[in-house]
Amino acid sequence: MKKTLLIVTLLATMLGFKGHAQEAYNVTIFDQAVYYGMYEGTVSEPIPDGAIRNSNSSYGKKLTDEQIDAMGNTLIMNVTLNPLCDNYDRIGNANLAFVPKNATSYIYGDVQRIELGRFITPFMDKNVATPNAVPYEFEIDNVTQILHDPILRAQYDFWVELEVYGYQGGPGQGGAAVEIEGCAGRNDVYMGSLSFTSTYNPNITRGLNHFMPLAYKFELKNYVEATETNFQGQGTDNVGQTVRKITFTVPETIPNAKFYIVTSNHGSGTNGEEYVRRTHNIFLDGSNTANRVLQYRPGGVSCVPYSVYNTQFSCIYNICYPNGTYAPRPDINSEWSWNNWCPGNKIPTRVAELGELTAGEHFFKITVPTAQFFNNDGYFPMSVYVQGYSETLGDESFNQSTFSIAPNPVNEIATINIGANDIIKSVTITNTLGQVVQQGNSATVNMSSLQSGIYIVKVQFSNNQVATKKIIKK
């Protein structure tokens, strides 16, 4: 499948100057949003403030300019689920969707998106008081490169999507409707929350950012021929083999390029791929060993650390014997050699290092040679994007203790205080997008004309050493 570059040469934060990390900025996007049965018609129940309902399993909400501007160059995403009336292990995920500027809503299939993180829900009983929530944490520092790009922000709004899939079941089907007290006749399955925590680390210098989505939850499986669709689809390039190739064009060289890949196995029953570990191969521009940039085999590690969140009995966390007896599964990897993932844990986002990616045409390729899909059942939902930018760590040997700025926060005038032997050569003030808003060489800084927000004051001394401090304009 031929694909051209969607987003090119995105401007990074360009704030990698020396200094101390800012205080954490926290923002909640969804707070216990209620999700409903994934196989039912779309409900008309209330939705979270400022959000839209894409389906019973998906909400979207736009990040405001104020929220984005307050974020630095580090980013942690936290997802928390509270059980209602689903008690099985399901897939869930959070996305960043690119929606045309100033749109108040969007059609799900019409916008492009990347997957920020994927997780598996545990076997939970809503009537068990403790624990009654399962947390997932994702470190996604690279995403700040996208959020702070002024070119991209001029074209799109960024919407965060939290997707939680569940089904309550019913008579003859099992599930929470018949297995969990109080769930009969209900269709609410989970509550989901999502928040971000961000700081600014001035010890990191990042250069121009290059970014391109390649696939979003593509259903990789060997029994259907792949369809030619943008960012979504299903199947394989060769029926009978589990393989997918995606061609993309790079207009200029990308430094430190990486593939960000999310895959997880899904199927049904003991014969499904859900419970069979398979080796995955990721290639760049070829199918030989020399072109393989990543090889991994999901799972195989103990799930016992996540058993606390599985408050309903299951034969995942217990060894169930044919005579009806059972024993807890030990906390050793050999007892988990069959599993691809743990209910109650996140799916890792795997990173393939590509080095310098030269301008021209390239292709991403994934193969899972031993995959088997019994009775044409099961699939590997695959998300992947390519991203690259230069990154330099600061020199920790320089002592900045002589540089301070006050008052902070400031209304109008701030004063730079330096050591007795230091001489200021230049002062540069930038906003959180890396845009220079003021320059000079005085120890007195007049910020009265600047909008309220977070700024970085960079001081270059006569010996050419550079130091920075964060300042808040009230």
Describe the structure.
The chain is mainly beta and 474 residues long. The chain folds into two domains: 2-393, Jelly Rolls; 404-473, Immunoglobulin-like, CATH 2.60.40. The protein contains four helices and 32 strands. The chain has helices at residues 65-70, 143-147, 150-155, 176-179; strands at residues 2-3, 7-10, 25-36, 51-55, 58-62, 74-83, 91-100, 112-120, 134-139, 156-164, 188-199, 204-206, 209-225, 234-236, 243-250, 254-263, 280-284, 292-296, 318-320, 326-328, 346-347, 350-357, 360-367, 380-388, 391-393, 404-406, 413-417, 424-431, 436-440, 444-446, 453-461, 466-473. The strands form eight sheets. Strands 2, 13, 14, 16, 22 and 24 form a six-stranded mixed β-sheet that branches. Strands 4-5-10-7-8-21 form a six-stranded antiparallel β-sheet. Strands 1-15-23-17-18 form a five-stranded mixed β-sheet, with no helix packed on it. The longest helix is centred in the first third of the chain and has 6 residues, at 65-70. Mean pLDDT is 87; it is low at 1-21 and 395-401.
- What is the helical fraction, as a range of percent? under 10%
- Helix-strand category: mainly beta
**What is the name of the CATH class of the largest domain?**
Mainly Beta
CATH fold title of the largest domain:
Jelly Rolls
Unreliable stretches covering 5 or more consecutive residues: 1-21, 395-401
Q: What count of domains describes the coordinates?
A: 2
The overall pLDDT average reads 87
Q: Give the biggest beta sheet.
A: 6 strands, mixed
Question: Outline, from the CA principal axes?
Answer: globular
For the secondary structure, the number of strands is: 32
